[in-house]
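Pasting as-is:
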Amino acid sequence: MEKRWKILQADESKTLALQQSLKINPALCRLLTQRDFDDFEKAKHYFRPQLSDLHAPWLMKDMKKAVNRILHAIEKKEKILVFGDYDVDGTTSVACMYNFLCKIYEPALLDFYIPHRYREGYGVSKMGIDYAKENDFSLIISLDCGIKSVDLITYAKDIGIDFIVCDHHLPDEEIPPAIAILNPKQKDCNYPYKELCGCGVGFKLITALATELHIDDTHYLCYLDLVATAIAADIVPMTGENRILAYYGLEKINSNPNPGIKALIFLGGIQKKLSINNVVFVIAPRINAAGRMDDAKKAVQLFIEDDYNKALAFAEMLHSDNTDRKEADSSITAEALGIINEDVALQNKKTTVVFRDHWHKGVVGIVASRLIETWYRPTVVLTQSGGIVTGSARSVPGFNLYEAIHACREYLLGYGGHFAAAGLSLLPENVVAFTNKFEETVSATIPEQLLIPEIIIDTEISFADLTQNFYNLICQMEPFGPENMRPVFIAKNVQDTGYSKIAKELHIRFVVKQGTISFTGIGFNLADKFELLKKPVDLVFTLDENEWNGNVSLQLKVIDLRSSES
């Protein structure tokens, strides 16, 4: 599939001024200016993140109320239930909060609760509140959920249970009647950084409690590895406080990780220093698999376990769930691609909706993302259980999927989500009508160019600039993530040396030069473009290191190429 190339521009005068003060490569100054680090002071904070730059937790609306309510519960010997969602953000949030409360309160008066994905669904559940009532809990601290649970938190209040909500999802007009709501996205919350994940909000509450009780910061900074894992997995912007927390969290992951994370690293077979990328693709899927395939409670048990051998036993359960998840994911993806490949009418649509009643509910969202890699358009994957069809939808960048689903609501029993992803449920007899309406809605509203994948290119560069020192500075821009992605470069008029070759019939092993300077590189799944190397090409790539027989050298990770003449 041909891709659109978009080369970003940087303010030339700001770039020049920055280069004069930093005395580093102009291409790096263009990158910094694009990311709004356009003077010496901003660049210093960017390259040298400091924990002292974190905002005071008291700036968050209701923080004082939340702290006072928890301290009151401790004083009166009330039972406290820590409640969280079943994904990485939710389970790490619960582990941090539960572990910290065990330090300042009697563990016998504490418990945690993770709703079962299929029996209870997402977020605060009636079963969870009833569990609290039956077991004499009078305070629930919800993490990574609760901001939309108006009816359920009203129900809890009516039966004598108070709620403290720690959430980061966008609030509706009506908010729940909780004792305190910690969510920087509330309109009247003056907290300076709005993009914390659920675990980040929970961490702020822990910080405030520790400050109020004059507890040394080592007693909460020890959770930074779990916070970094949540930031990476929840794909929140890697800016501001998130970047500081992720930076120091990664340091902890690589030096003295939580026994649960250490066990996951061991099972993931990672020998080298971990990056955010490793966390996203190796650690997070194993944590998420617990909730997708079984019960996410064991993910919390993994993180609150101090004994490495016991943690390893929990990690092996998650590892096994992840193996099951991968098998389900690949077999369903193959089946779904088969459905599309056999249906010419479906191939010519601007949406993909596929449905089989036997598909595993826990992986349909992953399958939707996989289908977009081949058929690049808004996608819904549906399955059925208990007479109800449920599914997950995923969008292509730039298209508001939630609005499109909302337009089909007459055929749905329920739906929820955001710009890029959504969940939905409907009756089996409405699947065809929904499919047609979804296609009609998307066709009428999606700009044609959004159906062609786009590669965002940060800046043009020449091979002469690609030195070890340049690469070292790129590494200092980590951790990478949304709004601070690994830089993507374009080098123009690059020539093959004659040594490039196709590897495993799919990939290209590049040996290319620009002027007198040559580089090796790898381009995954680009074999069909090998013929282009007969003439000069423009290469789009990220910079990487290759280690072979103890020798370390820079290499290009090629994303795309096209003829320089086009």
